[in-house]
């Protein structure tokens, strides 16, 4: 998940914002709690809106390669059209300028969307016994 780099996490307990490492991002992606590197509390992303936003980042990672392909294609088509005499040199120049400008704008927007700070909340660790009791309870109620 290289595109997700630059995402920060904010610990609700020690009030420190830190850059999330790839393994921490993976933990968030699978909704698994992990330790705060500063206060060692167990953190989890509880906000459903932020979680949805976070999971949509994969789609933003595709923006860059597809924009590069699109820009190259438009530049080549404009060049060929000028050679064939379909458009003037000025026209070709204008199209090229527009597409490069659009390229920069889209990438800037994608970068902006990828930069985010996740509010991480402290979760109380579930004791293994408690968890077992809950599973046993659920099984009993099924009968
Ligand atoms: Zn902390």
Summary tags:
single chain, 143 residues, alpha+beta, five-stranded mixed beta sheet, 5 strands, 13% strand, binds zinc ion
Sum up the overall morphology in one term. elongated
Q: What low-confidence regions span 5 or more consecutive residues with pLDDT below 50? A: none
Cofactors and ligands: zinc ion
Cα radius of gyration in angstroms: 24 Å
Give the number of domains. 1
Write the H/E string, N to C: EEHEEHHHHEH
Question: Helix proportion of residues, in percent?
Answer: 55-70%
Task: Please report the total strand number as a whole number.
Answer: 5
Work out the strand percent: 5-15%
Structural class comes to: alpha+beta
Rounded mean pLDDT is 87
Through-space gap between termini: 43 Å
Largest sheet: 5 strands, mixed
Separate helix tally: 6
Task: State the strand order across the main sheet.
Answer: 2-1-5-4-3
Structure, described:
The protein has 143 residues and is of the alpha+beta class. The protein has one domain. 58% of the residues lie in helices and 13% in strands. The chain has a 5-stranded mixed beta sheet with strand order 2-1-5-4-3. The radius of gyration is 24 Å and the shape is elongated. The chain binds zinc ion. The site of zinc ion (ZN) has 8 residues, from loops.
Summarize this structure briefly.
This protein is an alpha+beta fold. The protein has 6 helices and 5 strands; from the N terminus they run ββαββααααβα. The protein has one domain (2-142).
């Amino acid at each position: 998940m290289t595109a997700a780099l630059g995402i920060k996490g904010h610990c609700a307990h020690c009030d420190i914002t830190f850059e999330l490492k790839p393994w921490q991002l993976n933990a968030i992606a699978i909704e698994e709690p992990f330790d705060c590197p500063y206060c060692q509390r167990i953190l989890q992303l509880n906000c459903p809106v932020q979680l949805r936003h976070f999971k949509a980042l994969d789609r933003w990672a595709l923006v860059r390669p597809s924009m590069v392909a699109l820009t190259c294609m438009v530049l080549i088509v404009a060049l060929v059209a000028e050679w064939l005499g379909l458009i003037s040199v000025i026209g070709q120049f204008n199209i090229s300028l527009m597409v490069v400008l659009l390229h920069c704008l889209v990438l800037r927007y994608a970068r902006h969307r990828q930069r985010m700070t996740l509010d991480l909340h402290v979760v109380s660790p579930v004791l293994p016994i408690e968890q077992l009791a809950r599973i046993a309870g659920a099984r009993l109620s099924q009968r």
